[in-house]
Amino acid sequence: LIESNTRKSLNCFFHIFLSLIQPTQSQVELLKKVKGCDGILCVLTEKIDAQLLEAAGPNLKVVSTMSVGFDHLSLDELKKRGIRVGYTPDVLTDCVAELTVALLLATSRRLIEATHEAKTGGWGTWRTLWLCGHELANSTVGILGLGRIGVAIAERLKPFKVKKFIYTDVAPRPELANMIEAEYVSFDELAKQSDFLAVCCALTPETHGICNWNLFSKMKKNAIFINTSRGGVVNQEDLYEALSTGLIAGAGLDVTTPEPLPTHHPLFTLKNCVILPHIASASYTTRNAMSALAANNLLAGLRGEPMPKELKL
After folding, report:
1. What is the pLDDT at residue 28?
2. CDD domains in the record, alphabetically (predicted)?
3. What does the H/E/C string look like for 160-200?
4. 222 and 195 in contact (C-beta within 8 Å)?
5. What is the pLDDT of residue 147?
């Protein structure tokens, strides 16, 4: 997939390869390895901040991240240094939407609990309300942050006979909303009306911790909260209180703060909280596409050519 005729590109690629096959390496090791690089290919767990950019030195021309999110990149520092940034939107939309639907169903229909009961002898005589959950038919699905992924989620949920889609964002997005016949509502109305609430917004200073007690306290008692965006948008202490006190019915999380979430974290003690290890884009097809796009972004940047997907700073 990658052809390079320059020593510069090859040196950069070998550094990248080492970085990706050693995911447990510390930031200290990265600071050592990055010195003198012309380009960096990173994943979302690697923090590209002022300290790392300083360690890299003046040769650094391009950073390519194998992710659609870029909250791990210090964009102001990159812009200040004139460093170009590549990222991987679009190629993971379908995969993330599929996982979001799977997580929503696993949470709302209590599949993890049910599997545990079947394995551990809890499956006894038939009981009328045992392991009952909440269905999508005739429900209202809310989307916090309507973009490509939010639309793709709604398209997959529509055949489940969802009654209504609603969304909120920094402003109405009529072109996308019309694709799924979604109604724009306020943040408070999103909380009050949603039977299922899917968080799809980017992590920004404005959205950091936006899913907190203020949101959860306005939600229905039978509501299911799903987050496949970034862990930082959720106040996890408030979520724990909402779940443990029955304020909302359940939550499904593919992202947390920190990652990995410590095994002793209180959220792991709750039966009504399903936690996955950030696998929304984890299909062979999507990860291969992300890898190729990230590599091609990098090489285009090193050659001074237009990137297939460049983040405009």
Report:
1. 82
2. GDH (cd05301)
3. HCCCEEEEECCCCCHHHHHHHCEEECCHHHHHHHCCEEEEC
4. yes
5. 96
Secondary structure (DSSP) of 48-92: B-HHHHHHH-TT--EEEESSS--TTB-HHHHHHTT-EEE---STT
CA separation (Å) from 101 to 43, 90, 168, 252? 24, 18, 19, 10
Tens-digit pLDDT profile for residues 21-33: 344 457 788 888 8
Ranges of residues in the chain whose predicted pLDDT is under 50 = 1-24
Residue type, 207: T
Question: Edge-to-edge strand order for the sheet containing 182-184?
Answer: 182-184, 164-168, 140-144, 196-199, 224-227, 250-253, 273-275
Question: Given this model, what pLDDT does residue 12 score?
Answer: 47
Catalytic residues: 278
* Short-list 74, 224, 45, 229, CA closest to 148: 229
